[in-house]
Records
---
Amino acid sequence: MPSRILRSTAGTLLALLFCLAVLALTASFLIAYVPDGDRAYRAYQQARPCPSPPQEAADCLWRQEFTASDIVVGRGRRETGGVTLTAEDGSWWRARSSEPGPVLRRLEWGQKVTGTVWRGRLTEIATEGVSQRTEHFPVDMRNRTLTFALIIAPSGLMAAAVCLWRLLRRREPTRAMVATLGLSEALPFAGVFCAMALADDGHDPFWPTVAAWLPVAGLMALSTWVYATHDPPEDDPLP
């Protein structure tokens, strides 16, 4: 609990170091992915069909017909769905997806499925005019990284500031300190919920996540301020 962490100098110091490590990791992701995080996605969108079956991983798109078997339809985002695709020559692929998707939901054992192979990986499956992305479909890492930074960075900065404040103060934590540290712990959960609720078929919509997360964060911050400024009875200890 926040109050237990802040009451201990060692615990506060460890929490501060953890926050700084998280912030450094977030900064490294931003540096690595924001400038050119959509390179694989752009390459896939610009790829042309292969003139012949590639013998090794290639930048062109090869579409081949398979037979479906071992079909598992994932239930929501907590369970990964998948299907085994077998070609006429006996080779097979296991296509997995974190989304139930329009293809997995309607597939039947023995049904024909068209798979798209790019750079040696099965990226899409299609049947009856509908398609679905697999776990190997290239994504735009810029949106994913910015969403991660939006969720983690404010909380990390807030928690680091509280821990530093507590260490410099060298006294028992105040009600405001405890409330602020609790807010910094709760905000990432709200951010992850918003991001997961808005993610669609591998897309990570940054601006919709911002629009959903900011009001929630604002309400949480307001509740924290009310708690921190509330004048409790003298015999009401910190939680």
---
Amino acid sequence: MTKFVRRSEREMHFNGRVFGRGLMAVAMAVTLALSSVVSDQPSAEASQRWSTSLASVLVPPDQQAPGSVTMDPITLAQAAEDGGLGTPGMTSSPESCLSFADDSVGGLGTRTGWMQFGRRGPAIFLQVVAKIPGGFDVNRVRTAVASCATGTMTLEGKITGQVTFVEQRPLRLLFGKSFVTRMTTTFPKPANEEEAALLTKYNFHEGECPAEYVFVAVGNLFIWSLDPDPAIAVRAARIMYDRALRYHG
């Protein structure tokens, strides 16, 4: 069963903290602690969002993977207004290891579009659609990722993991192009309780922590699906691609 959670005054809570800056990192690294009322059906307002404007491209709750809890979608402008798209508490070397998706579109907060995210147990997923005048070249993501072929990610300056990207097989799309990459962050065994707590706080663990990134360009739309499960990430991207053709083709 999939469930839906409505945002209240554009606030979401992660580990008891109001969501704001850090959306890009939160999506792959912070356990979602829902503070809103969960219902089995979307509100009338949210249902309208999934059937109008670019929000119609997003994966609706009833098509999410089983067990998913999906947050009410917000515009990219609202996400930026809520505090930006930075990564508080997390740094990387080079910086592109965390910013490559945002860099490839010239800043998501400046684009017309929507995003939604949620969880399945501890797994965090993110889905985005944005309009790119003139169309989007997926090679821009490939170039951005290449700048962090190998790198590091550090949590609050205390524990550092190794970051690697491995390009995956692209989706076969009749009217679009895709780029798929798997980001794996590998953390060492925590040296103390503080480091162990940091890994838990950011939803990481000792060893390999993978995340599948699927990017699709179709017409003038940029589609992004992020999920730790490769099959689910690809499925969500295909659903958004199909909906893009249906509603905006």
---
Amino acid sequence: MTVGEEIFLQNARAILRDIGMPHLDWAHGAAVNIVRRSMNVRDRPTHHQQAFLEAEAPALLAYLETLAESGEIAAWRTLDARVRLHAEVLRESGMHPCARPRLAAIWHVLPELAALGQLIIDRVAEKDEPTPDAAPVFSDVTAETGGDGEKGSSGKAGSATSHRPPRSPRLAFPPVTVTPTPAEEKALDLKDQKLDDDISSPDGPETQNGVTGPRPDGGFK
């Protein structure tokens, strides 16, 4: 483990203590720290932070990277507004008292950001799908064929679904209903994307816009 990775791990565990949830896997604290840092510098995760999200939360990484690449200040302000909304709900409800309430609010907003990131991943997958009118392409090269020959159609058969990585068991987010704001639709290129209205989380506090989050007493359900 490098010095940077060790500091990254120490910061993640410190955040869990600050939000009063040291029993959670340190991956939760790491995700909160990454979002906090991205909000402060308005930039994408880099180095070991990027590698961590690639392995543990690719949808969250897709959200932060796309937001940073857009350069839309209004979308960053929307992210800040989401965090402030959760902080207000937690304060008014008396739920999740802790030393760092803003960090706790970021933890509660993670499922929303991951849901938006999944929309981005799905959008990319749909763009990679062949059109219905496209004629199938067949190749005599089998999947077992090596060398420098053609890959054949079998090599691309799973390209549409390969953009949707499996959920990490260490940092799995509950499904939530999220409505992108106009600023987010522009920054994230989600104007034609919508979340399933039937998807919701049965656990956690309900915010003013109907978005639910994870319960503070037992981690993500």
